[in-house]
Amino acid sequence: MDNRYTITFTVKEPVLLRSALQGYGISKKALTAIKFHGGEITVNGQEQNVRYRLEANDTVVVKFPREELSEGLVPQQGDLDIIYEDNELLILNKAPYQSTIPSHVHLEGSTAAIVAGYFKAKNIPSTVHVVNRLDRDTSGLMCVAKHRHIHHIMSAQQQAHEIFREYEAIVHGHVTEDEASIIAPIGRVENSIIERMVREDGQHAHTDYRVLRRFVHEGEPMTHVRLRLHTGRTHQIRVHMKHIGHPLVGDDLYGGKRDAIPRQALHCVCLHLKHPLTKQSLEWHTTLPADMQSLLV
């Protein structure tokens, strides 16, 4: 069985094959891989090179080479909360306390390793391409591309700010403004490979927030907020909320307390993107996990 990732399309008017492939986002690097590493491009069942001139109603089939697993990624069995799946995308609701990819601290049980095990069981010849990475203790919606080519298209969407993510968080204190934008550059804390801070020489970062509810939990004032990311800096929401004096509940790295919840109270509740091939707008939603819900009771 030929399980190589395949794209099939029919052209409507005469065009060079190279131009038609570019219209599907197939890069020069991908074309080189197809040519030299086990891929194939056919027109009406006959193999052709990119200089071939297509006529109206010609059918093109692109078979990409099989991918090797990324170094250090060992497939593992585990539970996946799959929200959506097709030949190109896998949308997950990631659990808290699970690293997105393996690290020297958490070698096993990562989302990527479990997805690799899922791909292996389903005979999908691809490594794991994470489109939006979540911190280990952050839960919620996460997108995985099922092939390097699809990841390439999704990365272009990210750079064009066409992928939108919304989060809900519970923060310390009562946030004064009902809604606002936080536009403050983020960079590393000196002598730390993990911690970030707002600093003038950091990268541009933009977060919008809206207050959903102000409340008191066991004598502690807290605010339930909805946040939208316009950029994707490491720890962006956590750093920005600390910057305005309202660190996330449970986020002890950035000044939060863990009395009520042993992780940062942060969950990706909405993911919006365009399908990499059909260009259809897609949007998924998920509810807060039980540990965050318990704070709102």
TrEMBL record:
One of its GO terms (molecular function) is pseudouridine synthase activity. Keywords: Isomerase, RNA-binding. The keyword RNA-binding applies. GO terms for biological process: enzyme-directed rRNA pseudouridine synthesis. Residues 113-243 form the Pseudouridine synthase RsuA/RluA-like domain. InterPro entries: PsdUridine_synth_cat_dom_sf, PsdUridine_synth_RluC/D, PsdUridine_synth_RsuA/RluA, RluA_PseudoU_synthase. Pfam families: PseudoU_synth_2. It comes from the Bacteria. Coiled coil: none annotated. The active site is at D135. Its EC number is 5.4.99.-. The keyword Cell division does not apply. Transmembrane segments: none annotated. Responsible for synthesis of pseudouridine from uracil. Belongs to the pseudouridine synthase RluA family. This is Pseudouridine synthase. It comes from Candidatus Kurthia intestinigallinarum.
